[in-house]
Amino acid sequence: MRGHYVDVPDGYLYYEQHGDGGLDVVLLNGGLADTRMWTPTVAWLAKFARVTTWDYRDNGLSSPSYSPYDEIADLLAVLDAAGVSRAVLVGSSDGGRRALAFAHRHPERVMKVCALAPSFGEFPDPSPVEEAARVVMREHFAEIEDLLATEGIPAAAAHDIDGWCPQVAEPDRRLLTGLAIANARVLTMPEAHGQELDPPIKTRFAELAVPVHVLVGRHDFQGTQLWAQRLAAQAPDSTLSVLPHADHMPMYSAPAAFREWVTHHAS
Hints:
Layout: E1 4-8, E2 11-18, E3 23-28, H1 39-45, E4 49-54, E5 69-70, H2 71-82, E6 87-92, H3 94-105, E7 110-116, H4 128-150, H5 153-164, H6 170-182, H7 185-188, E8 194-195, E9 212-217, H8 222-234, E10 238-243, H9 250-253, H10 255-266
Parallel strand pairs: 3-4, 3-6, 5-8, 6-7, 7-9, 9-10
Antiparallel strand pairs: 1-2, 2-4
Helix pairs in contact: 2-3, 4-5, 5-6
């Protein structure tokens, strides 16, 4: 395997392909990670699928951004460059949001979306339970900001991973912390430059025209679990699975159950 680059307006994107046969599966990273988060997943998934992984702008080996760019157009550029005409999109955390937004604009390029602990930020018209869950999330993000100002990126990254991944064993938690440190530009940018649908996908689940399979861990933040419930309730063709021993990164916190779920829903 060797990595590839595709040029996009004002930048470039890095992607990899693994495996030769079967269906096309495209993996979308969590926000503070890059293609390396998928290494254990690719090891088994590429045995029955052609797997494409890629780095968003400001992550991994892709270029930094300095002005607004179209997230959906970036994924389209990767698919075209990689020769992927139609794929299963498997998106983790913010990658779930990106996958769903892409599926909304380009349903002809998507077989289905597997959304793993998808993250969408603030709830529009939140219920009292949803608002209470977001209060907890805002407190977590405020702690990250304080640590960035007082102790620096490594401390902030470690605290962030501890919050999201309480079920992940120590070696893998160190890996995820290292990825967060390596991709800390995302933490320190005053604002994200990526742009998706307008209005955003989180207000348009009912318009999705492809099957959506949602996975969330019982040990994830309650806000993530509530977003998973919203998505599954509103998307016309959807399923919701809850892994009892998983957190925000089920591929690390519950790898056997995660593999079984992906094998079932992505095939």
